Amino acid sequence: MPIVIFELPDGTQRKVTADSGTVLMQAAVSNGVDGIVAECGGNASCATCHVYVDARHGELVGPPNDVEDEMLDFTAAERRPTSRLSCQVQVSDALDGLVVHIPEEQV
Questions:
Q1: End-to-end CA distance of the chain
Q2: DSSP code per residue over the chain
Q3: Distance of CA 15 to CAs 18, 45, 47, 66, 85, Å?
Q4: C-alpha dihedral over 13, 19, 21, 25, to 10 degrees?
Q5: Where in the numbering of this chain does the 2Fe-2S ferredoxin-type domain appear (predicted)?
Q6: What backbone torsions phi and psi does residue 20 show, to the nearest 5 degrees?
Q7: Bridge partner residues of 96 (DSSP)
């Protein structure tokens, strides 16, 4: 099972084990990671699961789809080139060791 590292704004890291096929949001919520609010439950309609994918992993994660891209314009934190909604990033074995940063505005 892949390990995902959620980094909080203060630099604290939470390493969680995630099942392949789940999404980052579910891995965070299931493991009590602060800053992933997930108000809409993973429907890409609230942007409260916004994360910054570490630049080293951007190509592995890929770009947002059109719906996600539009929702990223409404995040509480600044949108960056590596911004993603964690409810839209599916975990796979290829993402083992993935680092995502949680914006300060969500914590």
A1: 27
A2: --EEEEE-TTS-EEEEE--TTSBHHHHHHHTT-TT---TTSSSSSS-TTEEEE-GGGHHHH----HHHHHHGGG-SSPP-TTEEEGGG-B--GGGTTEEEE--GGG-
A3: 10, 26, 22, 30, 19
A4: -40
A5: 2-106
A6: -60, 140
A7: none
pLDDT digits (tens, 9 = 90+) for 40-92: 888 888 999 999 999 999 899 999 999 999 999 999 999 999 999 999 999 99
pTM for the model:
0.93
